[in-house]
Amino acid sequence: MKIYVIFFSLVIFIFPSGKAFSQNLIRRAACADPYILHQADSIKQELAKQGFLIVKEASMVMESEYEMPVIVPLTEGSWYQFVFIGDVTSKLYEVRMYDWDEKQVAYQKKQWGDVDGNVISYSYIPKLSEYHMMKPVQVNKTKKNLCGYVMLLKKVKQ
Question: 50: which strand partners?
Answer without folding.
Answer: none
